[in-house]
């Protein structure tokens, strides 16, 4: 203990921008360090991209299977990062009193949530590069304008992120883990990602199309697969989900 | 620095169901001093501190921390916090990473490396928080409380789980904090710690203050002197008390260990040894002592183990 410090008080919060940068960097590094998160958000989507592209399971009624698969996998990637990954990570941070401890620092909650959001967006950037890159290697030909597609991804992130935080902030960590994985699995097959909703009956389709995964997936397919214009319906659906989930999470989130 | 108290609690009540964890508690921690909260397990120390930290809400009463309502977020940079139950940091972040993160929340933080050295964690700087030993986690937790250069720190059992060297190091650190003008509120079960560090002591039991004052005041109050000795268990103390002046007390603190207190005069000592002789008992390790804070504590809060 040769070092000495003067402990004369000099309390003042850092500028928000510096806190946001530090918090984002921390969240992002921890995401990449967590083997389960990497598996869930990076490896599984790539494996499924390869797998769903094989004409083994069911017909997609299209000669260019990969053009259907890539927008689906992008949807899956967003759901994995913004919903399942975020919910599980945040749930355990709550359990281990990380959120409580951070609450006693100068870090405002808005900056904490901002840092989480940016870390998820950074992760999605990596996902998009890998999924699209792998898609191109499998002869993917995207159509349409990438701008609305990106907007949908951001909207999907906000809607799924709000839902993820709602689950993580209200249920116990172990239950969050189970719910987040179960929802992931159900939405993968019944939420318009792996199986086109056109394979379901009209009654089921009328309901399922309003799931956030179905909206994001449908929007991305309209743009990237069919070269369609800005997809108004799916955008509105995602906006509604975001408008429900975010205030609900803000209202009911328990920090301890 | 303002002369307003660092912490002021008046008639604080906190209920959990029907139980009152804190039951009309009032205390004042003067600025620039060390206040120690003592009390048995479940007395309400953590509850009180966490209300002051803004984590829990009082059912009634008023709490002012640095003159503000504890819910005010502008208090956060000014107050350092060490929780009782664990570091509360990202378990897979390293000690240095976590300290750097907390440093980045402050405009003029202490250099993380230096602080890590002061708490003796340099050799495990790169170790994940979850892999630190219990005592190392306590030390990291202390560093996290200090890194933002707060003017007030709440330390809930700061030295529990620390080895004797780390405890002494922490005592030195707390003394330095105080002399540099930081206000400190701590809880402890080590009464020597309170005696060594605290300017004032508040003893809590069942959510109420049962005594307060400086360690010197508390140990001076009541009996003026005491005698301890060892002998065979089960001596008939009642017959001793009949021979000693009225108002004297005698208890068997543990089997075979005796504490006799009262107005200890040479005659008092002679009466005691004569009684021992009459009992054909050789009193070993007989010592005439002043009371320790531990004695006061046990007298105030009882000797029996409670749920
Ligand atoms: N969240 C809670 N829900 C229900 N009861 C609680 C809660 N927190 C504390 N209590 C109760 O309040 C009482 C005071 O607890 P507290 O943690 O403040 O004690 P303490 O003095 O810090 O004890 P220790 O020395 O063991 O740390 C206990 O009876 C405890 O069971
Ligand atoms: Mg406690």
Describe this structure in words.
The complex is a heterodimer of chains A (256) and B (307). With 256 residues, chain A is an all-alpha fold. Chain A has one domain. Chain A has 10 helices and no strands. In chain A, helix 9 packs antiparallel against helix 10. Chain A is elongated and about 70 Å long. The two termini of chain A are 36 Å apart. In chain A, 48% of the residues are buried. Chain B is α/β, with parallel strands linked by helices and 307 residues long. Chain B has 2 domains: 7-219, P-loop containing nucleotide triphosphate hydrolases (Rossmann fold, 3-Layer(aba) Sandwich), CATH 3.40.50; 223-290, 2-Layer Sandwich (Alpha-Beta Plaits), CATH 3.30.70. Helix content of chain B is 31%, strand content 27%. Chain B has helices spanning 45-52, 95-103, 112-118, 134-146, 164-179, 191-197, 215-220, 237-243, 266-278, 293-301, and strands spanning 7-16, 19-29, 34-38, 60-65, 79-82, 152-156, 183-187, 200-205, 208-213, 225-230, 249-254, 257-262, 284-289. Chain B has a 6-stranded mixed beta sheet, sandwiched between helices. A 4-stranded antiparallel beta sheet of chain B has the order 11-12-10-13, with helices on one face. In chain B, strand 8 (200-205) and strand 9 form a beta hairpin. Chain B is elongated and about 70 Å long. Chain B starts with 6 loop residues before the first strand and ends in a 6-residue tail after the last helix. The model of chain B has no long low-confidence stretch (mean pLDDT 92). At the A-B interface, helix 1 and helix 4 of A face helix 2, helix 3 and helix 5 of B. The complex binds adenosine-5'-triphosphate and magnesium ion. Magnesium ion binds at residues 45-46, 84, 156 of chain B. Adenosine-5'-triphosphate is lined by residues 16, 21, 39, 41-47, 84 of chain B.
């Amino acid at each position: 203990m040769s070092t000495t410090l003067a402990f004369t008080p000099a309390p003042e919060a850092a500028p928000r921008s510096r806190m946001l940068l530090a918090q984002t960097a921390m969240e992002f590094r921890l995401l990449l360090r967590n083997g389960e998160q990497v598996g869930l958000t990076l490896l599984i989507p790539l494996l499924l991209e390869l797998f769903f592209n094989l004409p083994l399971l069911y017909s997609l009624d299209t000669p260019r299977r990969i053009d259907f698969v890539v927008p689906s996998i992008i949807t899956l990637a967003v759901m994995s990062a913004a919903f399942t990954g975020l919910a599980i990570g945040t749930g355990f941070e709550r359990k281990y009193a990380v959120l409580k401890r951070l609450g006693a620092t100068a870090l405002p909650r808005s900056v904490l949530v901002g840092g989480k959001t940016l870390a998820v967006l950074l992760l999605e950037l990596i996902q998009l590069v890998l999924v699209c890159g792998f898609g191109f290697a499998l002869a993917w030909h995207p159509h349409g304008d990438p701008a609305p597609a990106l907007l949908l991804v951001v909207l999907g992130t906000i809607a799924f992120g709000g839902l993820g935080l709602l689950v993580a902030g209200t249920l116990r960590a172990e239950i969050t883990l189970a719910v987040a994985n179960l929802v992931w699995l159900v939405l993968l097959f019944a939420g318009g990602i792996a199986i086109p909703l056109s394979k379901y009956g009209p009654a089921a389709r009328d309901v399922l199309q309003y799931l956030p995964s179905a909206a994001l997936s449908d929007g991305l397919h309209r743009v990237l697969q069919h070269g369609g214009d800005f997809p108004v319906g799916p955008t509105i659906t995602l906006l509604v989900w975001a408008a429900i989930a975010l205030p609900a999470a803000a209202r009911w989130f328990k920090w301890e | 620095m303002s002369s307003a108290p660092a912490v002021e609690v008046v008639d604080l009540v906190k209920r959990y169901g029907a139980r009152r964890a804190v039951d009309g508690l009032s205390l004042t921690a003067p600025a620039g001093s060390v206040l120690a909260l003592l009390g048995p397990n479940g007395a309400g120390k953590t509850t009180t501190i966490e209300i002051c930290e803004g984590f829990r809400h009082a059912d009634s009463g008023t709490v002012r921390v640095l003159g503000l309502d504890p819910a005010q977020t502008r208090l956060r940079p000014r107050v350092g916090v060490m929780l009782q139950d664990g570091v509360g940091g990202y378990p897979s972040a390293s000690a240095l990473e976590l300290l750097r993160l907390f440093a980045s929340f402050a405009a003029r933080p202490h250099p993380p490396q230096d602080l890590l050295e002061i708490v003796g964690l340099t050799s495990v700087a790169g170790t994940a928080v979850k892999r630190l030993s219990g005592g190392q986690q306590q030390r990291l937790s202390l560093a996290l409380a200090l890194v933002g250069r707060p003017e007030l720190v709440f330390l809930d059992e700061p030295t529990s789980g620390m080895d004797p060297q780390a405890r002494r190091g922490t005592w030195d650190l707390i003394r330095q904090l105080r002399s540099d003008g930081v206000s400190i509120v701590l809880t402890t079960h080590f009464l020597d710690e309170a005696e060594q560090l605290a300017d004032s002591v508040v003893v809590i039991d069942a959510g109420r203050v049962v005594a307060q004052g400086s360690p010197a005041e508390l140990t001076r109050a009541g009996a003026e002197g005491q005698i301890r000795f060892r002998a065979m268990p089960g001596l008939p103390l009642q017959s001793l008390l009949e021979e000693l002046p009225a108002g004297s007390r005698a208890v068997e603190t543990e089997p075979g260990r005796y504490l006799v207190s009262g107005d200890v005069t040479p005659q008092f000592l002679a009466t005691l040894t004569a009684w021992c002789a009459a009992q054909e008992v050789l009193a070993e390790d007989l010592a005439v002592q002043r009371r320790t804070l531990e004695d006061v504590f046990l007298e105030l809060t009882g000797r029996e183990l409670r749920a």
